[in-house]
Amino acid sequence: MPNVTLNNDVEIPILGFGVFQVPAEQTEQVVTQALEAGYRHIDTAQGYQNEDAVGRAIAKSGIPRDELFITTKLWIQDAGEERTKRAFDTSLRKLGLDRLDLYLIHQPFGDIYGSWRAMQDLCRQGATRAIGVSNFLPDRLIDLIDHNEITPAVNQIETHPFFQRTVDQDVMDKRGVRLESWGPLGQGRDDLFTNPVLSGIAAAHGKTVAQTVLRWLVQRDIVVIPKSARPERMAENLDIFDFTLSLEEMARIATLDTGASSVIDHRDPDVVAWMGSRRFD
């Protein structure tokens, strides 16, 4: 699995496995299957309510800790300096780990500055190898960077052929922040898997649409974390390193960008209020 290097020289596998919306009762089995398929980068979150199941799968796998890259995220209810430290300890305990590889602020709401101060301390202490954010739009990201000592290593945002985030990526590249894609397959919306442009390119390479999309993201130097509960799909999503999309094919995919989310608008006041009201204990 190819790695890319973050802004603090930590290496992260460019392709990982996400567990968003995997039911807690299925997570241990699904993560076990992902690890058996060859994934070594696992992405979870406090808000997914399945950290403990991820931890059990890791413990049972027998894979040496230094071969794994584990990410989890802080939810809004625990924003703030002291609460962040407690939430971090809780996540670490649930995962059964003595350190994280990457810890993210999950949403750009609440006391993100207090949280970031705590996360900087955790990073300096070696409790986590890198820290970053998720769902930060460019203005919020730059403000956080300019008023703190540690620049986020990662910004994990919705990125797929219908929402390509090229402007966001340009801003991040200039500031040394790695774009990581959540929902790289558009969560199956907007007929992505039957799109004629993607289907035609996939057929030309003897690959599936999913493989083509993941390859397109990797060629943009974007870290991807696809999710699947089916072992055959897990293996398929890993099998993207034996072909290359041409510049012409990349340009054709670029025409699919709508510039809008398929899932959620983080500038919608109702979305902000709804997220702030959600609690995960």
Automatic annotation (TrEMBL):
Q: Which Gene Ontology molecular function entries are recorded, alphabetically? A: oxidoreductase activity, acting on the CH-OH group of donors, NAD or NADP as acceptor
The superkingdom listed in its UniProt entry is: Bacteria
Q: Which PROSITE patterns match?
A: ALDOKETO_REDUCTASE_1, ALDOKETO_REDUCTASE_2
* Pfam families, alphabetized: Aldo_ket_red
Residue ranges of every copy of the NADP-dependent oxidoreductase domain listed in the record: 21-256
Which residues does this entry assign to the site Lowers pKa of active site Tyr?
73
InterPro entries listed in its UniProt record: AKR, Aldo/ket_reductase_CS, NAD(P)_OxRdtase_dom_sf, NADP_OxRdtase_dom
User: Where are the catalytic residues?
Assistant: 48 (proton donor)
**Which amino acid positions bind substrate, per UniProt?**
106
Task: List keywords of the entry alphabetically.
Answer: NADP, Oxidoreductase
Family per similarity comment: Belongs to the aldo/keto reductase family.
Query: What is the protein name stated in its UniProt record?
Result: 2,5-diketo-D-gluconic acid reductase
The organism encoding this protein is Amycolatopsis vastitatis
